[in-house]
Structure prediction request, 286 residues.
Amino acid sequence: MKSLLTGLIIMLVALLPDTAHAQWPAGQGAGWAKLSVFHHRTTEEYRADGRKAPFLNNGAESRSTAIFADILLGVTDRIDVWVQVPYFDLNFDDDTERRHSAGIGDIRMSGRVNLLQLRGGSIPISARFTAKAPVADLTIDAEVIPVGEGQWDYEAWLESGISLWPLPLYSVVWLGYRWRTLNQETTREPGDEFTFLGEVGGTSLIGGLGGKVVVDGIFGRPGKIQGLQLGDLDRREIVYLAPTALYNFTSSTVLEVSGRIPLHGKNFPAGAPVQIGLFHQGGIFN
Prediction:
């Protein structure tokens, strides 16, 4: 149960792809902000063999809403810093009990360095390092939904993209690895994860309308508890396809509406989260 309930959080924060504008360095003193709202509801999960089936708890249903506030600021023309603060409202009900938790979750802090600008700057290649700091207390009660995971995690990413300007088209590729550390209170060490994201899209294709398609996912290793290696029942995997509609209010403000359709999963909640996001670049910073 604990692994499943924690999966409700991981499902929502696995990658959280940016708007295309965010892939290129912001520049010294410039930046962007994004506010995203996710909602997810399901009565099914992916089992260890990849099969989708109802939750093992009789009559169980998961309902999750999350709000993410992201802010990125350019320290120099090649170095950005990025902070993400989440708020979760999580519910898991079955025939015997209704469980509810709400609060601020673990905070993610990133630093990104632009390594190369190829083809006149239209192809950036960057490296990003992220640390996830445990903010919320993680209870050891297996029947309580956690709003945080209770341990530090670290991520390394190699990111690139290509702009086809003057055509309003672009693509983005991210490859990453997430190191997950020991939770001292629960004596559990979640398995490390390989992560990826691929995105293609266009902005202002018809008037202010645009769109993008994102494929992202994680492939985890089994974790440990009290130093003992767990098996495939603890190995989490998920791959999402996220078609997204974009509306450009201005050249610097974009509304995103998307659905995240699961293509493959193991030991993960099933169902398709929906997202609404508002992205703004520049003006509030300079």
Observations:
- The helical segments are 2-13.
- The first strand starts at residue 31 and ends at 42.
- Residues 18 and 34 are 9 Å apart (CA to CA).
- The two ends are 47 Å apart (CA to CA).
